[in-house]
Amino acid sequence: VGVKPGLVYYLLNKPRGVVTTAKDTHGRQTVVELVPTEPRVFPVGRLDVDTEGLLLLTNDGDIAHRISHPSHGVEKEYLAHVKGQVSAGAVRVLRDGVELDDGVTAPAQVSQPTPGVLRIVIHEGRNRQVRRMCDAIGHPVLRLVRTRIGPISDRSLRPGDWRELSTGERRALTEALAESARRYDQ
């Protein structure tokens, strides 16, 4: 993997209550404040203020665009703790695509590892998508945590902690982006 000088890639476990932006006009803590100030980095995609979990921050605009844009099909995995026990039929609706006010979602990979907890894998990045999907089937989200971005996960990273991606992780991410580009170009 060719690495351009000066590019950095941070993996942050975003805590609840922190906003995913570089600057907040309301004085709330931002994800950018949790990582080194130099070089300047930007969040890749968004997690709403109430959502926790993995977020990439980088100064590599090309990678950021390719991860964020739904046409590249980068999977994002979430654990959604929802109100009530979800029926098999409701899980099937999530898998097939849910009608939202901005259109039907793409099919998702969905399982229910324990009652009231859904593992949802999507590749779109609509605003508050997982929360809206769960609302649409009558099971509002009580807690939402992103656990994976493409091939990148880290269960040992505590909320508020960050680390640089390893060379192997950068390579895996680049390969996943190339594979998704081939898949979606066909």
The number of E-state strands comes to 10
Biggest sheet, open or closed, and with what strands and sense? 8 strands, mixed
Helix percent reads 10-25%
- SSE succession: EEEHEHEEEEHEEH
Question: Which percent range describes the beta-strand content?
Answer: 25-35%
- Which consecutive residue ranges, at least 5 long each, have pLDDT under 50? none
Average pLDDT metric: 91
Radius of gyration from CA coordinates = 17 Å
Rough outline: globular
Query: How far apart are the termini?
Result: 24 Å
Number of helices: 4
Structural class: alpha+beta
Describe this structure in words.
By secondary structure, this protein is of the alpha+beta class. 24% of the residues lie in helices and 27% in strands. It has helices at residues 61-68, 88-96, 129-136, 167-185; strands spanning 9-14, 42-43, 52-58, 76-82, 99-100, 103-104, 109-114, 117-122, 141-149, 162-164. Strand 7 (109-114) and strand 8 (117-122) form a beta hairpin. The chain is globular, with a radius of gyration of 17 Å.
How are the SSEs placed, and which strands pair?
Blueprint lengths: L8 E6 L27 E2 L8 E7 L2 H8 L7 E7 L5 H9 L2 E2 L2 E2 L4 E6 L2 E6 L6 H8 L4 E9 L12 E3 L2 H19 L1
How would you briefly describe this protein structure?
This protein has helices spanning 61-68, 88-96, 129-136, 167-185, and strands at 9-14, 42-43, 52-58, 76-82, 99-100, 103-104, 109-114, 117-122, 141-149, 162-164.
List keywords for this structure.
10 strands; two-stranded antiparallel ribbon; 4 helices; eight-stranded mixed beta sheet; 186 residues; globular; alpha+beta
